[in-house]
Design brief:
Radius of gyration: 21 Å
Strand content: under 5%
Distance between the termini: 25 Å
Length: 142
């Protein structure tokens, strides 16, 4: 259980680094907007939402690190074989559905706007490469 506690502490540190990075990016973008270098919105909601979710996760993980019962519950939830299998199946389905929807969107966009068509095609290509790369990696790993 101590090994899992160390993993949670590492995740807490990584979440703190990510939250600090998002905060710094938000501040830099806001300064650039106020100086007139950038125009329009800087997606403030995205950054604030991301920071909020990270802080909430950090608080939950800190509680689990301090409390043995919460740590055990967190451990069971993250290592249960059934839960892992369900997550893998759902992730595979979501990936294939996303590829299918990107394909349909690219076909529809080809009749409307050529730039959107090529952008969706590129996104679909990158997504497909990542998906196939992860399949090859995990097939070799297991």
């Amino acid at each position: 259980m101590e090994e899992f506690r160390k993993k949670l502490r590492t995740k807490i540190i990584l979440c703190r680094i990510l939250a600090a990075s998002l905060l710094i990016a938000l501040i830099v973008l806001q300064v650039l907007v106020h100086r007139g270098v950038l125009r329009g919105e800087t997606n403030m909601g995205f950054f604030v939402g991301g920071i909020t979710v990270l802080i909430m996760n950090i608080m939950r993980m800190k509680k689990a690190v301090k409390d043995d019962a919460a740590l055990k519950q967190w451990y069971v939830r993250n290592t249960d074989e059934r839960t892992i299998a369900v997550q893998q199946k759902a992730g595979n389905f979501a990936s294939l559905l996303t590829l299918f929807l990107l394909c349909i969107a690219a076909i529809a966009a080809s009749y409307i706007n050529n730039t959107v068509y090529w952008t969706l095609g590129a996104a679909m290509g990158v997504y497909l490469l990542v998906y196939l790369g992860s399949l090859v990696y995990y097939n070799k790993k297991m």
